[in-house]
Write a structure and sequence with these properties.
mainly beta; five-stranded antiparallel sheet; two-stranded antiparallel sheet; 7 strands; 0% helix; extended
């Protein structure tokens, strides 16, 4: 995941889409090799439906001193190393993010947003 602070949509937030296969037969393996940035508008296959969006503010993880410079554009970018953890507690899906900061494990909140199809 590469984050570019010059993007208008960048605010320290990330969004991860979860999909469910509701088509005929077994689920196909899908990989979008052309996608270089997270997008809420991924093209989907018939039968593949977005069911949940996980959002987290990673502003606490990306700090100016941890930025790398793009050799071509000279702009800073971040490539944070984090995990998104999902769990079912009391029959409710919960999410959080986990990362390591100077050898210390940190945990932060994430939101589970159901996708409603009309």
């Amino acid at each position: 995941m590469f984050l570019d602070p010059s993007e208008p949509s960048f605010g320290g937030n990330i969004g991860i889409q979860l999909f469910s296969w509701r088509g005929e037969g077994s689920a196909p393996h899908v990989l979008d090799l052309a996608q270089t940035r997270p997008s809420y508008d991924l093209p989907t296959l018939p039968g593949l439906e977005e069911i949940i969006l996980i959002e987290a503010d990673i502003g606490v993880i990306i700090k100016p001193e941890t930025a790398s410079l793009n050799r071509i554009t000279g702009k800073p970018y971040w490539n944070p190393s984090l995990r998104i953890e999902l769990s079912f507690k009391s029959m409710k899906l919960r999410a959080r993010i986990r990362w390591s900061e100077e050898g210390v494990e940190r945990i932060g909140p994430a939101s589970v947003i159901p996708i409603t199809r009309l």
